[in-house]
């Protein structure tokens, strides 16, 4: 039987589509904001550690510094941003850290409700970890509520050390140094995701253009 290499097969014949993780930039900020604003109250609490209203969410999205931090995203088939992972870098003295490196990184992630359970959150985490390795950061932190069972599962699966305290959990992962394979993996993943992004963006633009043609009745 022919098996599409872009689909990962699971036990029982179900499949998960391959997740294309793309580095986000200034041009994606508006869609990032839309993604964050669409998170329900409970999810905002899990994502930001406290309930943020729309104004605070907008401030957070506006404040992301793409020149300092790395933001990853996943676009769905119709070019909707369905997941955002924010890897924030900080000098090590701002964290109690045993690392010898100059910087540490902290990761925060959210996946739209409609796209959960497809491996997107895990893939964003993996991509953040490999990016740290390739950028001389050997300690990746994550802060979340200990009641966040899905995130706890992802953290444990990744081998993170988890410290729970008063309903909150601090998790960290010690990373190996970069090697040619980790460098190549990140570069290839980004190249493939860039092609995928361009294809989806162009298809979306063409669909919008066709939709505006006079006399066109069937909306795409
Ligand atoms: C946490 C979150 C990012 C996960 O995204 P996702 O794309 O659904 O995650 P994945 O599909 O990669 O993985 C989910 C894993 O958790 C498991 N899981 C789901 N619900 C679970 C639960 N209640 N208890 C334990 N594990 C659970 C799934 O079985 C899956 O495990 P597997 O890959 O070993 O099969 C998403 O739920 C989310 O955005 N939540 C709100 C914001 C948030 O909590 N952010 C994290 C704070 S930093």
Automatic annotation (TrEMBL):
Molecular function per GO: acyltransferase activity, transferring groups other than amino-acyl groups
Any Pfam family matching the protein: Acetyltransf_1
Coiled-coil parts of chain: none
InterPro entries (UniProt xref): Acyl_CoA_acyltransferase, GNAT_dom
Keywords: Transferase
Transferase found in the keyword field: yes
Transferase recorded as keyword: yes
Ranges of residues in domain N-acetyltransferase: 19-178
UniProt name for this protein: GNAT family N-acetyltransferase
Native source species: Pseudoduganella aquatica
